Amino acid sequence: MVDRIAIIGAGIAGLCTAKVLLELGYEVTLFEKEPDLGGVWSSSRRYPGLTTQNPRETYCFSDWPMPKDYPEWPNGSQMQAYLQSYADHFGITPNIHFSREILYTEPLSDQRGWELVSSGPTGEQKDQFEWLIACNGIFSIPSIPAFRGTDTFLATGGKVLHTSQLTDPSEAMEKHVLIVGYGKSSCDVANAVAPISASSTMVVRHLIWKIPKRIGNVLNFKHLFLNRLGEGLFPWRKLKGFEAFLHGRGKYLRNCMLASVQAVITRQLRLKKVGLDPGTPLETIGRSTVSLVSDGFYDKVANGTIGFEREAEIVELSSGSARMSNGKSVPADIVICGTGWHQRVDFLPDGIRAKVTDKQGNFRLYRSMIPLGVPRLLFNGYNSSFFSQLNAEIGAIWLAAYLKGQLDLPTIDLMSADIDSRLAWMDERTDGKHCKGTNIVPFSIHHIDELLQDLELELPRATRILQWIRTVRASDFSIVGQRFVARQSAARSIPNGPSA
What we know:
The chain is of the alpha/beta class. The chain has 2 domains: 4-141 and 342-490, 3-Layer(bba) Sandwich (FAD/NAD(P)-binding domain); 144-212 and 269-339, FAD/NAD(P)-binding domain, CATH 3.50.50. Helices cover 32% and strands 18% of the residues. It is built from 16 helices and 24 strands. A 5-stranded parallel beta sheet has the order 3-2-1-7-24, covered by helices on one side. A 5-stranded parallel beta sheet has the order 9-20-10-11-16. Helix 1 packs parallel to helix 12 (388-403).
């Protein structure tokens, strides 16, 4: 009997997980609450100005390149079309239940599967599956601050939105717009609405470093940061080889490299002139996030098209205005919040959530995928990074090997100790800014290496050496899927798979 597998979410992680499992003969059903696939790239969530942070050859699946006529940084609609073509080509689309949200789940009494209750256009329905894989993503529940005076502000015609909820830029036409935050989505939105709004003002508590797409207006940033050397500039928790040298006797060389790049970026973006120098070392980009510069953003700041309230936050909203912590009152018709996301799994029962997360809400997942002590529940995509799609794709292969009983994993106690160690290291490294243990920036390749070592499918040594000096391409990893499929054709299947 073929196991039935439920996947929650039809974004990048859900799609590549479904693809791998369908190829192995599993019966797969994806539940997607939006009317189209794509996750953050869905048309229901695309804010104006949304593009990838990665060049196309680093942000595609290893066996499905993006169209050659795509720009180097595809926009949101192009990404959604690309993901749709992937789903159509690999036969995933017929298995997706669109506009169907999971209300809650319950493990079956015999611990041999899960019951899912979902709602959609045809009402509520119940389904049972042998396995449940959460691919709902860590960017699916918007986090919007509870500003004082919001009720009055809304009652008098104001709007408070998350960046993902501003899908129509005309909402900002001739309006006074406040954009809260300084991440990529906030800057993208400010950049897009500033030319059509009555005013656009960013409200920013802390300045962070922005990375130009072309450093010094010449060198594509991928050549510096999207390779093993770029990742090796930041200290991984298990240093060895050349990385140990870079953070030991060769630290002077590493510091000089970062300082040189920092000086170039400071001059290029005129950060001191526009008053947006973060005042911290560039290496702080490795703590939680890396944000590319939105095209033309700093020009708009320089000429006053985009206003700035630095080291400030909204204290209170009132009819047509907002009072700042710096004492200023700023006109406001719309407040757009690029203030992050909640990392939660509300569809799981309380008792299960208590096992999946700790008291601080951090996800306790071995290899970012296995919750300990919860039978037949798995995760994929809970590892945001520079190469999120590759982490999800290799993660899907890892999960397939797990389901087939082909992984030689440590004991529960050793896995638990590894999780504790990883979370403690992340807390110290990021000052707690790791999205509840789900943000592995900048260690995308390190995480993939761990998965490939578990699978005994490491990249050829020559490829890994080459990746130190050139950009890591998705196509580098196509050999992994090929070798895994070849292994399955020769391996004896284990019907029931693992139970924990």
